[in-house]
Specification:
By secondary structure, this protein is α/β, with parallel strands linked by helices. The chain has helices spanning 15-27, 53-60, 68-71, 82-89, 95-107, 134-141, 155-168, 188-198, and strands at 2-8, 33-36, 39-41, 44-46, 49-51, 74-76, 111-115, 123-127, 130-133, 145-150, 173-179, 203-207. The strands form four sheets. The protein has a six-stranded parallel sheet with strand order 2-7-1-10-11-12, sandwiched between helices. Bound molecules: adenosine-5'-triphosphate (ATP) and magnesium ion. Adenosine-5'-triphosphate (ATP) is lined by residues 8, 11-17, 54, 118, 179-181, 207, 209-211.
């Protein structure tokens, strides 16, 4: 069983795109691939139902369909940090429950891709003496991490801090993707070269600005766990 945890330098940098493309790439080697979005914050009315875009995109890239309670145990309506949306909605996020759902998915899959919420140490829950971040979840699941770098001004600092946060927790950085999300960025190539030198993992893809490209048409190397 292969599994990865996909994180990013920020929210909105391409984690879902990378997760979906990774599922497509893994499907070339494995029959049963499942995407998981443990905590999704932000719903919209899609075909008459309140749904989250990321969850739907990962399901579309999966080859096994599972009950929603497993691939998306927490669906929050507010598009806010999970711990804030959960508090507003009276939901108690339990990362042990997420781990149980993940282990149930593993039984039915050859490969699982877990998309984190926001950036790496975004809080998932904060209640009384209990707190947990997205990084705590990656540690609990013991997954190799794929880092999506949204290539824009500020990304060097975000990427290098995220690498430190991953490695300092004893996790493996399995690979990273340069995702050029800002077509007007100054010196994008020099930024990507800087990251090639400083990130201690293979670059799995270098994607140009391409707003209309479907995930199935995006290629990336499958990381070695
Ligand atoms: N290379 C790219 N070129 C153009 N648009 C892109 C590119 N990568 C991502 N996008 C667009 O940027 C937006 C954010 O991408 P995506 O949803 O994958 O980010 P995310 O990190 O998963 O966000 P979230 O934190 O909300 O989960 C989407 O509209 C996506 O289509
Ligand atoms: Mg996403």
């Amino acid at each position: 069983m292969t599994a990865f945890f996909v994180t990013g330098t920020d929210t909105g940098v391409g984690k879902t795109r990378v997760s979906a493309a990774l599922l497509h790439a893994l499907h070339r080697h494995h029959a049963r691939v499942i995407g998981m979005k443990p905590v999704a914050a932000g719903t919209e009315l899609i075909n008459g139902e309140w749904a989250n875009e990321d969850v739907l995109a990962l399901r579309a890239a999966s080859t096994v369909q599972v009950p929603a309670l497993y691939d998306n145990p927490y669906l929050l309506n507010l598009a806010a940090s999970p711990h804030i949306a959960a508090r507003e909605e009276g939901v108690e996020i339990d990362i042990e429950h997420i781990a149980a759902c993940f282990h149930a998915l593993r039984q039915q899959a050859d490969a699982v891709v877990v998309e984190g919420a926001g950036g790496f140490i975004v809080p998932l829950l904060e209640s009384g003496r209990q707190s947990a971040t997205s990084a705590d979840l990656a540690v609990l699941l013991r997954l190799p991490v794929v880092l999506v770098v949204g290539v824009r001004l500020g990304c060097l600092n975000h990427a290098l801090l995220t690498q430190e946060a991953i490695l300092s927790r004893g996790l493996t950085l399995a690979g990273w993707v340069a995702n050029r999300i800002d077509p007007s960025m100054v010196a994008p190539d020099a930024n990507v070269d800087t990251l090639r030198l400083r990130l201690q993992a293979p670059m799995l893809a270098d994607w140009p600005w391409q707003p209309l490209q479907p995930a199935s048409a995006l290629s990336l190397d499958v990381p070695v766990p």
